[in-house]
Amino acid sequence: MRLKDSVRSADSVGRYGGEEFLIVLRGCPESHINDRAEKVREAVSCTTFLLEDAVNFHVAQHRGVSGRQVGCIAAILNHS
């Protein structure tokens, strides 16, 4: 499962810390942000991960959503 597979091609996904990820939804209307975030949550929670020793597990997630019209991703990160 790749987070990039659960977002649009115009969106960006990156690691923002040890277990934290950032998804930038370019050009996404603020009214659609929660719907997009829910689709990502569903994709992650429906995925069964398999470790080398045949142990299956699922991942829980917590999310924060912010809608900002900013021209620079660095400005978003500095504000968070």
Largest sheet: 2 strands, antiparallel
> How big is the Rg?
14 Å
**Ends apart, CA distance between termini:** 27 Å
Assembly status = single chain
The beta-strand count equals 4
> What is the SS-derived class?
alpha+beta
What does this structure look like?
- With 80 residues, the chain is of the alpha+beta class.
- It has a single domain (3-79), classed as Reverse transcriptase/Diguanylate cyclase domain (Alpha-Beta Plaits, 2-Layer Sandwich).
- Helix content is 25%, strand content 15%.
- The chain is built from two helices and four strands.
- A two-stranded antiparallel ribbon has the order 1-2. Strands 3-4 form a two-stranded antiparallel sheet.
- A hairpin with a 5-residue loop joins β3 and β4 (56-57).
- The model has no long low-confidence stretch (mean pLDDT 79).
Record the SSE blueprint.
Elements: E1 12-15, E2 21-24, H1 33-45, E3 49-50, E4 56-57, H2 73-79
Short key terms for the protein model shown above:
single chain, 80 residues, alpha+beta, Alpha-Beta Plaits, two-stranded antiparallel ribbon, two-stranded antiparallel sheet, 2 helices, elongated
In short:
This protein has 80 residues and is α+β, with helices and mostly antiparallel strands. The chain is built from 2 helices and 4 strands, in the order E-E-H-E-E-H.
